[in-house]
């Protein structure tokens, strides 16, 4: 008899312990989950923002690309190159300020490279010295490399529709 009660109260004790443990765990779990949700939402917003930024950057990149390989530039061609340097430099400032993942040294390096080349393009297009256009073509090639290197590093394929299964050609 005495023995029996012992088992019963032990069982009850176990049930209470188990219940509070389960409650405790589910509280922890749901707190953890909603935290994960918030984080995912923040990541999504950030991803959307950098995509928007990249689209603008790409527009100016392409405008300059159309002017590579000409040997006589009109005033409006020079103006386009100047604008490309200026806008890409400014947008890269935003990348550097807002989007560099804290632990990604490569991302930082490619952003700094992009900034440097955009500034070079701006300077040459602004000063239009003898050989400025050749310098711009050189800097543009380096700029293109920074795009490619960062996308490859992140394993992003930009032109998947054009080149299915291949990494972006820019
Ligand atoms: C330091 C890293 C980095 C550099 C440098 C970089 N990009 Fe990007 N690019 C990204 C990231 C991050 C995304 C968004 C990836 C995703 O889809 O999740 C992106 C996406 C893009 C997209 C697709 C946007 C969309 O609508 O999804 C284009 C186009 C693009 N980049 C063009 C360029 C061009 C042109 C350059 C060079 C002038 C460049 N990028 C340089 C990181 C970079």
Topology at a glance:
Elements: H1 2-65, H2 75-99, H3 105-127, H4 132-154
Helix pairs in contact: 1-2, 2-3, 3-4
The structure holds heme C.
Explain what this protein looks like in three dimensions:
- The protein is built from four helices and no strands.
- The chain has a domain at 45-154: Four Helix Bundle (Hemerythrin (Met), subunit A) (Up-down Bundle).
- The mean pLDDT is 85.
- Helix 2 packs antiparallel against helix 3 (105-127) and helix 3 (105-127) runs antiparallel to helix 4 (132-154).
- With 170 residues, it is an all-alpha fold.
- Bound molecules: heme C.
- Heme C binds at residues 47, 50-51, 54-55, 57-58, 61, 88, 107, 110-111, 114, 143, 146-147, 150-151, 154, 156, 158, 170.
Strand content: under 5%
| Overall CATH class of one domain | Mainly Alpha
Tally of DSSP helical segments: 4
- Computed Rg: 28 Å
CATH fold node name of one domain: Four Helix Bundle (Hemerythrin (Met), subunit A)
In CATH terms, what is the architecture of one domain?
Answer: Up-down Bundle
Kindly summarize this structure in a few lines.
With 170 residues, the chain is mainly alpha-helical.
Which characteristics define this entry?
170 residues, mainly alpha, Four Helix Bundle (Hemerythrin (Met), subunit A), 4 helices
